[in-house]
Design a protein that fits this description.
275 residues; alpha+beta; Uridine Diphospho-n-acetylenolpyruvylglucosamine Reductase, domain 3; Uridine Diphospho-n-acetylenolpyruvylglucosamine Reductase, domain 1; 2 domains; five-stranded antiparallel beta sheet; three-stranded parallel beta sheet; 18 strands; 26% helix; binds flavin-adenine dinucleotide; cytoplasm; NADP; cell shape; UDP-N-acetylmuramate dehydrogenase activity
Length: 275
């Protein structure tokens, strides 16, 4: 979103060994650490982050028949396009989601009725104590924008997806990209959908019905294109965004009776993650 202060430490890691060393560095100094994918779902505090930001750039991609094994730092959007171009179906929805594979698994990102978990076969996770473990899909309980990795301390390293052959995949992926371009504010900086959809309702529709499209605090604005996005119209601070989110929550509650839960992650100065 182009907001937030500086991190005390920052490192880019391209291999498991580098990731292990970075996690060890944080452990030895008792520093909070934060695994950064593409930051497309994150809002950092204006005061910055007092720990270590570990930027995951483990980016390999091996395609074998209908299985694709990828590094957790690989672009999820690229993967959606690449697999569709290879006539493989399952991840067309990923095309246009501006995160990494690791971020998508961690958030169980989804769209158009599909979620990251749906075609996941297994993934490898490095715990902060240095243990590398493979998790098979059957061992993992996912739900709407939730994965068990949100309760673990470490980082996703790689994943394998099992797809199926389809001549329609590329056509479907292009249709989804066009739909996204027409319905989301892609020209402005945002962190994607701010709120999760309540059961049997759409957060965007509730916000719009509450008359909040275009509502502004400082440089933060409820998007005129899609009401569940808050965009940075220039010079927004993390505080502006937080205040606008609170204003939207309170107004929607008052006008529709619905309680909205946040989908974006706020990272406080001392590393507290507010999911
Ligand atoms: C324009 C726009 C459109 C979007 N559309 C969608 C959509 O259709 N559907 C949807 O679900 N989301 C959407 N998003 C939100 C976002 O892109 C997804 O949640 C994405 O999966 C986040 O990936 P990331 O790499 O950017 O994660 P980040 O924002 O970097 O991190 C998000 C969380 O994941 C954790 N994380 C990241 N990588 C790892 C790793 N390797 N190991 C462990 N933890 C990790 C981080 O620590 C953090 O807690 C959209 C965002 C934008 C800006």
């Amino acid at each position: 979103m182009k907001v937030g202060g500086e991190a005390r430490y920052y490192i880019k890691v391209g291999t498991i060994e580098e990731l292990r060393e970075a996690l060890q560095f944080a452990k030895e100094r008792q520093l909070p650490f934060f695994i950064l994918g593409k930051g497309s779902n994150c809002i950092f505090d204006d005061e910055g982050f007092s720990g270590l930001v570990i930027h995951n750039k483990i980016e390999f991609c091996n395609l074998n028949e209908t299985k694709v094994e990828v590094g957790a730092g690989l672009s999820f959007s690229w993967l959606g396009t690449f697999t569709a171009k290879n006539n493989l179906s399952g991840l067309e929805f990923a095309s246009g989601i501006p995160g990494t594979v690791g971020g998508a698994i961690y958030m169980n990102a989804g769209s158009n009725g599909l979620e990251t978990k749906d075609f996941l076969e297994s993934c490898n996770y490095l715990f902060q104590d240095g243990t590398l473990r493979q998790f098979d899909r059957g061992e993992l309980q996912f739900s709407y924008r939730h994965s068990p990795f949100q309760e673990m301390k470490g980082a996703l390293v790689s994943a394998t997806f099992k797809l199926f052959k389809s001549e329609e995949a590329r056509k479907r992926q292009i249709e989804l990209i066009h739909y996204r371009k027409n319905t989301q504010p892609l020209k402005d900086c945002s962190a994607g959908c701010v709120f999760r959809n309540p059961v049997n309702a759409k957060a965007g529709a509730l916000i719009e019905a509450s008359g909040l499209k275009g509502a502004k605090i400082g440089g933060a604005e409820v998007s005129l294109v899609h009401a569940n996005f808050i965009v940075n119209k220039g010079g927004a601070t993390s505080k502006d965004i937080k205040m606008l989110i609170e204003h939207v929550s309170e107004t929607v509650k008052e006008k529709t009776g619905h309680t909205l839960k946040k989908e974006v992650c706020f990272i406080s100065k001392d590393g507290f993650l507010n999911l």
